[in-house]
Specification:
This protein is α+β, with helices and mostly antiparallel strands. 51% of the residues lie in helices and 9% in strands.
Length: 205
């Protein structure tokens, strides 16, 4: 039975399509109409009480949160190819960059955009400037966050960078724009991008 992705092309589920294309398993997309608030209906809330996408069902496994889905898929279906094994020294860096986007980049950008006043030592994401420097450091050792090896961490971290560049929330420094361009050359990314573009066009039509 194929995995099921509860999906809308204007949600974080769009990046999970890229994850699924990278691991190469059979899956189906189950469209969730956000305008009709289907994600808030009782039958959906049993899958994710947060009432948010993405949600992945894979047999008896139910996984929410984009970074968690990324780690799950890579470990189950592409260990070594897309995820360092548990005893690989690179595993720590891999996990760091998988979870850096939701725990640091997203809240820092929201805080900056909203003009929040907060003490950097009290916030898990610290200062905006430190975040930018840390993001640059992630790409200082090679074309990908693990150096020469592309991994699922690049799908999460790189997918976030691509989105915030396109939305104008991040200055297009060469280190970021070049990285996004490299990722866009991946066949799995291109397949996912075409799927999401077709879905957005269908909804507009």
């Amino acid at each position: 039975m194929p995995a099921s992705l509860y999906y809308h092309p204007s949600s974080r589920a769009a990046n999970v399509v890229w994850m699924l294309e990278e691991v190469g398993i059979a899956y189906e997309r189950r469209f969730v109409d956000l305008r009709a608030n289907e994600q808030k209906r009782p039958e959906f809330l049993t899958k994710n009480p947060m009432g948010k996408l993405p949600v992945l069902e894979d047999g008896e496994a139910l996984v929410t949160e984009s970074a968690a889905i990324a780690v799950y898929l890579a470990d189950r279906y592409a260990s070594e190819r897309l995820a360092p094994t548990l005893d690989d020294p690179k595993r720590g860096s891999y996990l760091r960059w998988c979870f850096f986007s939701p725990s640091v980049i997203e809240p820092a950008l929201i805080a900056k955009g909203g003009g929040w006043s907060y003490g950097p030592s009290s916030a898990g994401w610290g200062t905006f400037e430190a975040m930018i420097e840390t993001m640059q450091s992630a790409l200082s050792q090679g074309p990908y966050v693990l150096g020469e090896q592309f991994s699922m961490a690049d799908v999460v971290f790189g997918g976030t960078i691509r989105y915030v560049l396109m939305s104008g929330m991040l200055d297009p420094l060469p280190v970021f724009s070049d990285y996004a361009a490299r990722l866009a050359e991946r066949p799995a990314f291109q397949r996912a991008d075409a799927i999401n573009a077709a879905e957005r066009a269908r909804l507009k039509g």
